[in-house]
Amino acid sequence: MLSNLAQGVQAFTSNVYLLKGQRTVLIDPGSNFDVVERIRDRVDGLDAVVLTHTHPDHVGNLAAVKDAFDADAWGYDASVDGVDHAIEDDESVRLGDHEYVALHTPGHKDDHLCFYSEEAGVLLAGDLVFQNGSFGRTDLEEGNREMLIRSIDRLVDRIDEDLEEMHTGHGPSVTVDPYDHVELSAEMARQV
User: Fold this and answer.
1) CATH number at residue 88
2) Contact by Cβ (8 Å): 90, 65
3) Which domain holds residue 103?
4) Distance CA 4, CA 46 (A)
5) pLDDT tens, position by position, 87-111
6) DSSP state of 51
7) How confident is the model over 145-165, as a mean pLDDT?
8) Which of 51, 130, 146, 187 could covalently link to 134 via disulfide, CB atoms 3.0 to 4.6 Å apart?
């Protein structure tokens, strides 16, 4: 079961997804709000914190969450402050009740990961792609438009056309034809 703990937060933050199940995991702890209280309202503990990438709006609450739940953080680059363990490209990770493949998708940030479960029909897209053909910024440090386009193309090739849900780092989740939104992002990234 997946829920967005940043729902309704007015502060600048990323979406924060709690996946409950065999392995209770928090995806991106967000920033600028009390996420610890929101987690405690729903679960007794966390098995891990998993990061799509380490921009401040996604990891501002990381230290507080790790301290409150004695949970390690997993991300692409373990040399980044706060990341305890590395997740390799194409590595399989259990999030909630399903196995997800971690896809290294740089372009927005060098350590960016997307997580895809074919079994569940779910994509955790981070800041790579969003609804209606939007895509991650490339004007920040480590941003690279050509690399972003290659990452989106890789995602299009990897995910199933029957994808059921796409949960993004900002904005609403997409539950109607999410594959089409990813394809449109690939087109739009080439036009800007």
Assistant:
1) 3.60.15.10
2) no
3) 2-191
4) 15
5) 999 999 999 999 999 999 999 999 9
6) -
7) 97
8) 130
